[in-house]
């Protein structure tokens, strides 16, 4: 969907509120703005602590989630929808209904299972609900190897895992960190016909909190601009690569992707940002 006049493309995002501001909604807003888009954020979950996969979290009510989303969709020209952590099975069901009603808007989704609490009554069936209700309606699904295997219930090869996800109807799948047996860090994209491309990196930057969010939102942003999923996947990886090469230690004993690296006067050239050799 093209933007109207001089307006930037609008991206509706569903994600958790991370109080550290390094992931979740804050990361979505920064990434969208950096790439010339406007982010309309819908809070799905309130998280008690930033950068903590075991932090207490509380999903917003599905009624409130629907009200937030429909307010945006009825009053703004949304170009793409980005999905992060949805917080509860009830919220997955609510988002499913919204996506069905706005089927013409392309969706980019990441399950964000690193903050999934399997023992929480509201979240216990989250992975299955995503597989059956969300990914059949997704244009581009983005997963770590772990997330792809959990959601698809396939623990064999990466290819069979991707095939299971594609079998839901998800048009394109990007699985990160697929180069465990390779000398280079690698991501891999798949269509419903099979492997599209391996993306190999000679070196890798520090591990950062908010990397997956940055990758997912930047894919949604480039998709809003170009309309081409494979172009968006390629460009989003390049952008994310630069943000984590320029990452800053803002707190929580980790690094945060620098999503406005291109505007930082302290960085003379992104080519001069140090990287390190592969370590996984």
From TrEMBL:
<dbReference type="InterPro" id="IPR013749">
    <property type="entry name" value="PM/HMP-P_kinase-1"/>
</dbReference>
<dbReference type="Pfam" id="PF08543">
    <property type="entry name" value="Phos_pyr_kin"/>
</dbReference>
<keyword id="KW-0418">Kinase</keyword>
<dbReference type="GO" id="GO:0008972">
    <property type="term" value="F:phosphomethylpyrimidine kinase activity"/>
</dbReference>
<dbReference type="GO" id="GO:0009228">
    <property type="term" value="P:thiamine biosynthetic process"/>
</dbReference>
<dbReference type="GO" id="GO:0005829">
    <property type="term" value="C:cytosol"/>
</dbReference>
<dbReference type="InterPro" id="IPR029056">
    <property type="entry name" value="Ribokinase-like"/>
</dbReference>
<comment type="pathway">
    <text>Cofactor biosynthesis; thiamine diphosphate biosynthesis.</text>
</comment>
<dbReference type="GO" id="GO:0008902">
    <property type="term" value="F:hydroxymethylpyrimidine kinase activity"/>
</dbReference>
<dbReference type="GO" id="GO:0009229">
    <property type="term" value="P:thiamine diphosphate biosynthetic process"/>
</dbReference>
<dbReference type="InterPro" id="IPR004399">
    <property type="entry name" value="HMP/HMP-P_kinase_dom"/>
</dbReference>
<feature type="domain" description="Pyridoxamine kinase/Phosphomethylpyrimidine kinase">
    <location>
        <begin position="18"/>
        <end position="252"/>
    </location>
</feature>
<protein>
    <recommendedName>
        <fullName>hydroxymethylpyrimidine kinase</fullName>
        <ecNumber>2.7.1.49</ecNumber>
    </recommendedName>
</protein>
<keyword id="KW-0808">Transferase</keyword>
């Amino acid at each position: 969907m093209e933007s109207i006049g001089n307006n930037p493309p609008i991206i509706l995002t569903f994600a958790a509120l991370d109080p550290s501001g390094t992931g979740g909604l804050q990361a979505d807003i920064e990434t969208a703005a950096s790439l010339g888009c406007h982010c309309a954020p819908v809070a799905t979950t309130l998280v008690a602590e930033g950068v903590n996969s075991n932090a207490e979290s509380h999903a917003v009510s599905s009624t409130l989630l629907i009200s937030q989303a429909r307010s945006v969709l009825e009053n703004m020209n949304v170009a793409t929808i980005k999905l992060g952590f949805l917080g509860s099975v009830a919220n997955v069901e609510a988002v499913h209904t919204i996506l069905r009603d706005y089927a013409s808007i392309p969706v980019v989704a990441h399950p964000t299972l690193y903050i999934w609490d399997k023992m929480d009554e509201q979240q216990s069936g989250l992975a299955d609900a995503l597989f059956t209700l969300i990914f059949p309606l997704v244009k581009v699904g983005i997963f770590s190897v772990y997330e792809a295997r959990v959601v698809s219930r396939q623990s064999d090869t990466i290819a069979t895992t991707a095939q299971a996800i594609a079998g839901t109807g998800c048009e394109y799948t990007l699985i990160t960190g697929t180069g465990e047996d390779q000398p280079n860090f690698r991501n891999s994209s798949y269509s419903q016909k099979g492997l599209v491309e391996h993306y190999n990196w000679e070196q890798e930057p520090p591990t950062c909190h908010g990397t997956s969010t940055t990758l997912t939102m930047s894919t949604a942003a480039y998709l809003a601009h170009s309309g081409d999923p494979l172009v968006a996947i390629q460009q989003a990886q390049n952008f994310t690569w630069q943000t984590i090469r320029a990452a800053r230690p803002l707190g929580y004993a980790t690094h945060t992707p620098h999503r406005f690296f291109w505007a930082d006067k302290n960085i003379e050239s992104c080519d001069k940002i140090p990287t390190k050799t592969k370590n996984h």
